[in-house]
Design brief:
alpha/beta; TIM Barrel; M1 Pyruvate Kinase, Domain 3; Pyruvate Kinase, Chain: A, domain 1; six-stranded mixed beta sheet
């Protein structure tokens, strides 16, 4: 099944979409990657869904990616004696480690690491930013605050600290357990939540040890400042603009700007970037999106995102299939727009001074000049295909690989059609033969030309050093 678009779609699985029939329908509607959200569901449920996807993959003869999204640290208040309390604007309110039930004057915040990092003048956001507190005095086990934005506050609501880097690892004990589970069942991507610094990504990559791609979710202001962002992009295999949490800790007017800056930085680095959260939020209950939501998806595609993601829309919504289908149509409409082509051409990035990028840039130019049907990349790790995808060519990219895991990871990359060859290439004539055969299946007519990118010696990672033109 060839997709007739370049940007990819990630669909989250959940109660509304967990059956074999629903998963197959979502794939046929346009889902390229399925997300397993470890904030919800049991290991047994996620294992069953993965098995369904793998069977579907065999049936369709096309790689399907699976993204396991780690929950990350959850900072929450304790319990109120009445289940909730109303915090009046300008009133005093205390947070402390006392486990007794709270009231309108105080509540337990069972996170000593928060008190260790707080300073007077810092802001705390509660319940997804609906309430705001200003720290006036604080110590190792308490914070006396003034209510800036009041309202009803109930048990276990979340706490955000937009101006504070917490002395916390991004991996909780639950995350480590979920990570081991995900690697054991063979997921393709691991998404890391609560990234504050480059070292958070490094820690996860050491644990993953190449068994899956590592995707860093950018949802903390500390991660998107220029001094940290470049390091996080360099260390991660892919990134996500997680606008929901980012929008809680950043002013709403900053989120669109940050989205564009992050997508541009990832495009420059050649790292896949996903735009996520509230893309078609109204479709949780409505059969069609708002025009503003359709515009939002289109903007991410115009900006050059590799993928867009559906969360509650497909996991718990009433219209999961329709959400994927309309997202597929929006992407296709944008990519057919002459303005999209002009933007893509104007946004062409200069290659970095490396052999791989020089070859990838040349492949794009040659394919355009000779009106090739496709660019075929031979890749063991996915590196060659990713570098060609960075160039945003105007023809399909075929990512041929002898590794099924690499083929599945490439389902996230812009314009790449991954093909698992189950065959190691040994020489140039064999390379041309396999490339031409693959292109003839769905991408090129007899007599058409293809551009081939590969590395010699064959099978070695990161050795993109050869370009060849062949006829099908």
């Amino acid at each position: 099944m060839r997709r007739s678009r370049n940007a990819k779609i990630i669909a989250t699985l959940g109660p509304a979409s967990g059956t074999p029939e629903k998963i197959a329908a979502l794939f046929r509607a346009g889902a390229d990657v399925f997300r397993l959200n470890m904030s919800h569901g049991s290991h047994e449920e996620h294992r069953a869904r993965l098995n369904v996807i793998r069977r579907l993959e065999e049936e369709m003869g096309r790689p399907i990616g699976i993204l396991l999204d780690l929950q990350g640290p959850k900072l929450r208040i304790g319990d109120f004696s009445q289940g909730s309390a109303y915090l009046e604007k300008d009133a005093s309110f205390r947070l402390d480690l006392d486990p007794h039930l709270g009231n309108e004057k105080r509540i337990c915040l069972p996170h000593p690491e928060i008190f260790a990092a707080l300073k007077p003048g810092e802001e705390l956001l509660l319940d997804d930013g609906r309430l705001k507190l200003l720290v006036e005095r604080c110590g190792a086990d308490y914070a006396n605050t003034r209510v800036i934005e009041g309202g009803q506050l109930s048990n276990h609501k979340g706490v955000n600290l937009p101006g504070v880097i917490l002395p916390l690892t991004a991996l909780t004990p639950k995350d480590v357990e979920d990570l081991d589970f995900g690697l054991d069942i063979g997921v393709d991507w691991i998404a890391l939540s609560f990234v504050q610094r480059t070292s958070d990504v490094t820690e996860l990559k050491m644990k993953v040890a190449g068994r899956a791609g590592v995707l860093a979710k950018l949802e903390k202001p500390s991660a998107v400042v220029s001094s940290e962002l470049a390091g996080i992009i360099a260390e991660a295999d892919a990134l996500m603009v997680a606008r929901g949490d980012l929008g809680v800790e950043c002013p709403p007017e900053r989120v669109p700007i940050l989205q564009k800056q992050i997508v541009a930085a990832c495009r420059q680095a050649g790292k896949p970037v996903v735009v996520a959260t509230q893309m078609l939020e109204s479709m949780v209950t409505a059969p069609v999106p708002t025009r503003a939501e359709a515009s939002d998806v289109a903007t991410a595609v115009y900006d050059g995102a590799d993928a867009v993601m559906l969360s509650a829309e497909t996991a718990a919504g009433q219209h999961p299939l329709e959400a994927v289908a309309i997202m597929d149509r929006i992407i296709q409409s944008v990519e057919a727009d002459p303005l999209f082509e002009r933007i893509r051409t104007a946004d062409q990035r200069d290659p970095t001074p490396t052999m791989a990028d020089a070859i990838a840039s040349a492949a794009r130019q040659v394919a355009h000049t000779i009106k090739a049907s496709a660019i075929v990349t031979y890749t063991s790790s996915g590196f060659s295909a990713m570098r060609v995808a960075r160039e945003r060519p105007d023809v399909p990219i075929l990512g041929l690989t002898p590794r099924s895991g690499t083929a599945r990871r490439l389902t996230l990359a812009w314009g790449v059609h991954p093909i698992y060859t189950n065959r190691e290439i040994k020489n140039v004539p064999e390379m041309v033969e396999v490339a031409a055969h693959a292109a003839a299946q769905d991408y090129a007519k007899r007599g058409g030309q293809i551009v081939i990118v590969a590395g010699v010696p064959f099978g070695a990672e990161g050795t993109t050093n050869m370009l060849r033109v062949a006829r099908v």
